[in-house]
């Protein structure tokens, strides 16, 4: 059968089942049976889609997987070299930034010390001449310091962008949790492990009792023998 005709048949069947599923109202056992029949129709259509297009998809997936594996193998050595170089360059850049910052602080401290010493000398001279009030006023004024030229820590090389990032790490969980409870704006940092909660709910069911947590029961239906696209039972 031509592929165009197959596509049209599947499309028409899917639209019909979808419309009937939307219109179905389950109020009686007969309605339930009709719904199961529709569900089986959906399964039949999905099985046909898999039989028509599954081999093509699996073949394309196999080719894709092979290409990805080959690319990973070829690129692996270069990726390792790139990580190695970035690590060394970043480490040196961080050391340079710390050195430059320390030097900058030292220069600023030296300039401030010289300026304070000069101002003190002037104030001492004013006191020696009997101008104690002027000396006190001079010492009370904010100290004006000349700007210190900043040295570039990392060479500016075209095609390279140097970034500085900041990260945080929780070293004391108890202190962190207490701080979150005391400061509402930090509660957003306290994430709930929903996956772990759901696992406990599946295990303990109605017996799961945790303050602030409600256990909900959900009902579902599946068809016997139905498998997903990976061949695993649904």
Apparent shape: elongated
Biggest sheet: strands, sense, closure? none
Number of strands: 0
Instruction: Note the gap between the termini.
Output: 30 Å
Gyration radius (Cα, Å) is 37 Å
Mean pLDDT: 87
Number of helices: 5
Order of helices and strands: HHHHH
> Beta fraction of the residues?
under 5%
> What structural category characterises the helix and strand content?
mainly alpha
The percentage helix is 55-70%
| pLDDT < 50 stretches | none
Characterization of the model:
The mean pLDDT is 87. This protein has helices at residues 3-23, 29-128, 132-140, 173-182, 194-204. The protein contains five helices and no strands. The protein is 65% helix and 0% strand. 0% of the residues are buried. Helix 1 (3-23) packs across helix 2 and helix 2 (29-128) packs antiparallel against helix 3. The protein is elongated, with a radius of gyration of 37 Å. The chain has a domain at 167-214. It starts with a helix and ends in a 30-residue tail after the last helix. The chain has 234 residues and is mainly α.
Q: What does the secondary structure layout of this molecule look like, with pairings?
A:
Elements: H1 3-23, H2 29-128, H3 132-140, H4 173-182, H5 194-204
Helix pairs in contact: 1-2, 2-3
């Amino acid at each position: 059968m031509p592929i165009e005709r197959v596509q049209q048949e599947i499309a028409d069947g899917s639209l019909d089942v979808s419309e009937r599923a939307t219109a179905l109202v389950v109020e009686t056992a007969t309605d339930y049976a009709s719904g199961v029949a529709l569900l089986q129709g959906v399964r039949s259509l999905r099985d046909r889609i898999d039989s028509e297009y599954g081999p093509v998809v699996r073949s394309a997936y196999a080719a894709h997987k092979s290409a990805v594996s080959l690319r990973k193998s070829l690129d692996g050595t270069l990726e390792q070299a790139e990580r190695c170089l970035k690590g060394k360059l970043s480490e040196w850049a961080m050391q340079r930034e710390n050195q430059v910052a320390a030097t900058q602080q030292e220069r600023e401290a030296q300039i401030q010390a010289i300026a304070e010493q000069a101002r003190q000398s002037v104030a001492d001279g004013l006191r020696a001449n009997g101008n104690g009030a002027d000396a006190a006023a001079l010492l009370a004024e904010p100290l004006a310091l000349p700007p210190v030229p900043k040295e570039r820590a990392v060479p500016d090389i075209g095609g390279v962008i140097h970034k500085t990032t900041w990260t945080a790490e929780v070293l004391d969980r108890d202190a962190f949790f207490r701080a979150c409870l005391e400061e509402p704006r930090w509660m957003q940092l306290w994430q709930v492990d929903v996956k772990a909660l759901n696992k406990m709910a599946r295990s303990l069911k109605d017996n799961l009792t945790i303050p602030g947590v409600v256990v909900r029961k959900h009902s579902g239906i599946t068809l016997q023998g139905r498998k997903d696209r990976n061949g695993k039972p649904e």
